[in-house]
Amino acid sequence: MADDNDIFKKSEEFNQLINKQKAFLEELVKENEKLRYQVAQLKSQPHNNGLFREEIEVLRKRVESLELEKEELIQRYQQVEEENKDFAKRYVEIEEQNNNLANLYVASYQLHSTLDFQEVLHIVMEIVINLIGADTFSIMLLDEKSNELVVLASEGYDENTKFPNVRFGEGIIGQVAKSGEPYYINQATKSYPVDFEHPLACIPLKIKENVLGVININKLLVQKDAFTAVDYELFSMLAGHAATAIFSSKLYSQSERKLSTIQSFLDLLTTSQNQG
Predict the structure, then answer these.
(1) Each residue's pLDDT tens digit, 17-61
(2) Could you tell me the pTM of the whole model?
(3) I need a surface site. Which of 69, 186, 249, 275 has the fewest CB within 10 A?
(4) Range 117-260 has CATH code 3.30.450.40
(5) Residue 265, Cα to own-chain centre: how many angstroms?
């Protein structure tokens, strides 16, 4: 927030400087006109030419000096105005980044606040919709037995859509899972039709070098034309947090099922022994 305050303070200083320069320029213009009028009057009176020749020359030089000073001030004014615009633009960008990071912090907290697998998937989907601005996308996890990526959750598709499993290393999605590197289309997205196997973005969900799955984005919301620089940062941060939350909740669900099975087996043994 210190950087934000500095930029805001500088922007205010520039505005004050611009206002002062405007007032000074107006005074210079008035004085210039006044001096020009005086010179013209003196020149129009022949009997004064000899008497006031030195004064006329002084006035002429003063006019020239004011003209140069005015030009320099105009150039400086234009330069300051451009700098002010740059600072204002940067200030807006930083505000946007801060808002997104704050939202991501809240979303990350939500991700790690539960060990319920389905709830974690739901939270990831909410993040992709609200922070990234995705309209149509899917979350795919790697099935280690079949070595295929399988859709576990999706948004924006028809309810009857049947998603194909994707072989590890095949196509855009499979290559992202294999390499662990994200894939993006760095162009406006409106001209691209929804194509499951040719996404606008495919983000690997990984813990260190281990890829658990991918987030496959096929279409953005109407109000979003393309990905921004902030989106790429969010992708990077989201991938790690989402992967960790999904992995933890999956392990917890598996352990819960095993504990439930063991408990059922122990209950069965206890019942059998009591009956014996």
Answers:
(1) 667 767 766 777 777 677 677 666 666 665 555 555 676 677 778
(2) 0.59
(3) 275
(4) yes
(5) 53
Residue pair 191/224 in contact by the 8 Å Cβ criterion: no
Q: What is the crossing angle of helices 229-275 and 117-127, to 10°? A: 170
Residue type present at position 77: Y
Instruction: For residue 249, give both structure tokens.
Output: 């909740």
Token code pair at residue 36: 């020009």
Contact 76, 3 (CB under 8 A): no
